[in-house]
Amino acid sequence: MELALPGLPPAADVREAIAAAAAAHPDGVLRLLAADGRLLVTVAPSPASAPPAGPVRVGLSRDVRRLAGAPTTRFKALSYLDNVLLAREAAARGLFDVVARSERGLLADGGRCNLFIVIGDEVLTPRATEDGALPGVVRGVLIDAGLAREAALTPADLARADAAFVTNALIGITELSAVELAREFGTEGATNTAARAAITAAREAYARACAGP
């Protein structure tokens, strides 16, 4: 699905602006904002907080459901209410994040992360179009590299997973120690050899993508 927003510059100009901003601020956070017929390229300092030092706990949201067919679930938009509510719920429950489900009860994504589960040597992530997961940057890297694939996932799949991790562009790949009331993985993360190899391969692929050509 394409937004076809009016008044945006050619793709070559966008790439040139991104390259210039990245060269000037190699350690910052770059964002694109399309609004009112303009495309803004902004760079902000990297967050002061470091990525988690070890595996983190997440849960399943009790309050928020993703509407899988809604266009806003497939793009980062200024309509951010669902993610604000997910962040508040996670903070209230003392969790790193909470994962929303679709209106059909299938796993979608968290307020700030994409979810991946590892079963054997296979890495699975909720579907974007069918289940409402946001097509995040790290998620795209792993799928394009053939290291993960989309699947219809339920909370029951968490119970049989060997490991799980969450991703976003700022923290990279963070393993889970538990999904509250669904699965305990332990504070060391993946112990299964195949699962550990799959997560290591994912981390290496994202590191290569960050390093560039």
List strands and helices in order, with pairings.
Layout: H1 11-24, E1 29-35, E2 38-44, E3 56-66, H2 81-92, E4 97-102, E5 107-110, E6 114-119, E7 122-126, H3 137-144, E8 149-151, H4 155-159, E9 163-168, E10 172-179, E11 183-184, H5 193-211
Parallel strand pairs: 3-4, 3-10, 7-8
Antiparallel strand pairs: 1-2, 4-5, 6-7, 6-9, 9-10, 10-11
Strand percentage lies at: 25-35%
Number of helices: 5
**Elements, N to C (H/E):** HEEEHEEEEHEHEEEH
Largest sheet: 9 strands, mixed
- Overall tally of domains: 2
CATH superfamily of the largest domain: D-amino Acid Aminotransferase, subunit A, domain 2
Radius of gyration: 17 Å
- What is the CATH first-level class name of the largest domain? Alpha Beta
What proportion of the residues is helical, as a percent range? Answer: 25-40%
- Please count the beta strands (DSSP E, at least 2 residues each): 11
Distance between the termini: 28 Å
Can you tell me the residue ranges where pLDDT is under 50 for at least 5 consecutive residues?
none
What is the fold-level CATH name, i.e. the topology of the largest domain? Answer: D-amino Acid Aminotransferase, Chain A, domain 2
Concise synopsis of the structure shown:
With 213 residues, the chain is of the alpha/beta class. It has helices spanning 11-24, 81-92, 137-144, 155-159, 193-211; strands at 29-35, 38-44, 56-66, 97-102, 107-110, 114-119, 122-126, 149-151, 163-168, 172-179, 183-184.
